Amino acid sequence: MQLVVGRIGRAHGIRGDVSVEVRTDEPELRLGPGAVLLTDPASAGPLTVESGKVHSGRLLLRFAGVKDRNGAEALRGTLLIAEVDPEERPDDPEEYYDHQLIGLDVVLLDGTPVGELTEVIHLPYQDLLTVRRPDGTDVLVPFVTRIVPTIDLENQRAVIDPPAGLIDPEQAEVVRGEAEPGAGDGDEADGAEDSQ
What we know:
By secondary structure, this protein is mainly beta. Helices cover 7% and strands 38% of the residues. It has helices at residues 27-30, 69-74, 98-101, and strands at residues 2-12, 17-22, 36-40, 47-55, 58-63, 79-83, 105-108, 113-122, 127-132, 138-142, 150-152, 157-160. Strands 1-2-5-4-3-6 form a 6-stranded antiparallel barrel. It has a 6-stranded mixed beta sheet with strand order 10-9-8-7-12-11, with no helix packed on it. A hairpin with a 6-residue loop joins strand 3 and strand 4.
């Protein structure tokens, strides 16, 4: 099975280093020295990681055969793809590969069917699960323990406990704040003294 583990960004320096947008929870395993990665577009690879380092919070990689800035810049935008055994699991039992989640039945705590998990969207601060409802509409569910307390791979289901309105917007609770007494009724001058 193939997994996208990174995307090549700008060239860094003049010796062929590139910045990489990491798309894996295991960069040291997937993007470490010696890793051979397929690419999209395929014509850019395969690429073998020669060395890597973190600089100012960004991962910088150098690939075998890429010796200068021009070669590095030519790789910009290329997706890095790792070949992974479909049976392989992350070391942390609370982590999952996208392919393990795609296709899971999504149900509420009481077992009520919600839909099918069709996509995992990776954002900088939080992942979202795309759930396709029986009527064909999609719902985005934050992939956090509070809302997705159980992933049951053995039974191929994800149990969710969404806040009111997440799945069915008509069930959303509207909270209206009350204005403070005196706010906005022209009493702003109270307590102000003339400075003559």
